[in-house]
Amino acid sequence: MQVRQRRVLGVDPGLTRCGVGVVEGVPGRPCVMVDYTVIGSDPDADLADRLLHLDRNLAELIARHQPESVAVERVFSQHNVRTVMGTAQAAAVAVLAAARAGLPVRTYTPSEVKAAVTGSGQADKKQVTTMVTRLLRLDAPPRPADAADALALAICHIWRGGTRDRLSEAIRSAKGRQ
Amino acid sequence: MQVRQRRVLGVDPGLTRCGVGVVEGVPGRPCVMVDYTVIGSDPDADLADRLLHLDRNLAELIARHQPESVAVERVFSQHNVRTVMGTAQAAAVAVLAAARAGLPVRTYTPSEVKAAVTGSGQADKKQVTTMVTRLLRLDAPPRPADAADALALAICHIWRGGTRDRLSEAIRSAKGRQ
């Protein structure tokens, strides 16, 4: 059976450093790395300028790579409150950029992403980077780590999306048989 | 001396209820209410849809009222963490909407706003509503309270902006005399 390739743009949100990774693949098979980058902004700059810079760069990456969906790391409330606000704002910009481009957006918790690429929701950053390097068959680990996390999100979305699609397909065909 | 009228759009950010108030005036004099509204979204709806709804409504209000600047309430880390994330995301959308429209954005803490309209940074919501109603010479208090807070932000910005402008003017003329 020929399975259609999916192209996913993953975002590891952050105001100072926002990781972006673009991956192509099909559920359950090794994926291919298309691009990765980190969008940075000066912590001393004006909030409006920082959000605008992030928005423009994300919109440009979406336009350039034409992903069919976007995966964003879900911001957690148990984190340090000061950090979480910047992360929440960067995540909002990412989700909005995808929505404005008409793309479906899915959010994943850090443990869902870790479990998808390492088999354990408790894996550390190093393990995630190692597995991303291996799964995408890269010559060297993606640097910085924010980029590796964004690539892991995209891989997670391709694989989990496959599971969801197979479920919907099974439900549809079961209903068809009724 | 003829002082130019300023039109300011104030935003009291919230994902479920986002207050917006448009006010016109000059520093130190009573302001005039132009419009106020609350942009609501369903807490059970998808985050992408909620952010997009807020973004579109804010962009539409900015286009309709053509403010020369935007004032947004600054999100505070000491609040409840769960609430603060939605508020931070709504604030990010508001700041971004203003920046994308090329407008300057200023953020104010809740106590700065309270102090500006009631004289006390510890004033309660009722007192803010009472003073907004009085300062804008409205027949009835603006409802709901989110709208009153947004109008208070706009008033605060007009008045404090005036102080800042006079300070910059004084600095400029002092430098000119050197």
Automatic annotation (TrEMBL), chains A, B:
Compartments in which it is found: Cytoplasm
Positions with a binding annotation for Mg(2+) 1: 12, 146
Example GO molecular function: magnesium ion binding
Entry's Gene Ontology cellular component terms: cytoplasm; Holliday junction resolvase complex
EC number: 3.1.21.10
Binding residues for Mg(2+) 2: 73
InterPro entries noted in UniProt: RNaseH-like_sf, RNaseH_sf, X-over_junc_endoDNase_Mg_BS, X-over_junc_endoDNase_RuvC
Superkingdom field: Bacteria
Record-level GO BP terms: DNA recombination; DNA repair
UniProt entry keywords in alphabetical sequence: Cytoplasm, DNA damage, DNA recombination, DNA repair, DNA-binding, Endonuclease, Hydrolase, Magnesium, Metal-binding, Nuclease
Glycoprotein in keyword set: no
PROSITE patterns with a match to the protein in the record: RUVC
UniProt enzyme class: hydrolase
Catalytic activity: Endonucleolytic cleavage at a junction such as a reciprocal single-stranded crossover between two homologous DNA duplexes (Holliday junction)
SUPFAM superfamilies: Ribonuclease H-like
Cofactor: how and how many bound: Binds 2 Mg(2+) ion per subunit.
Subunit record text: Homodimer which binds Holliday junction (HJ) DNA. The HJ becomes 2-fold symmetrical on binding to RuvC with unstacked arms; it has a different conformation from HJ DNA in complex with RuvA. In the full resolvosome a probable DNA-RuvA(4)-RuvB(12)-RuvC(2) complex forms which resolves the HJ.
Function, as annotated: The RuvA-RuvB-RuvC complex processes Holliday junction (HJ) DNA during genetic recombination and DNA repair. Endonuclease that resolves HJ intermediates. Cleaves cruciform DNA by making single-stranded nicks across the HJ at symmetrical positions within the homologous arms, yielding a 5'-phosphate and a 3'-hydroxyl group; requires a central core of homology in the junction. The consensus cleavage sequence is 5'-(A/T)TT(C/G)-3'. Cleavage occurs on the 3'-side of the TT dinucleotide at the point of strand exchange.
Homology family: Belongs to the RuvC family.
Protein name: Crossover junction endodeoxyribonuclease RuvC
Protein source organism: Catellatospora citrea
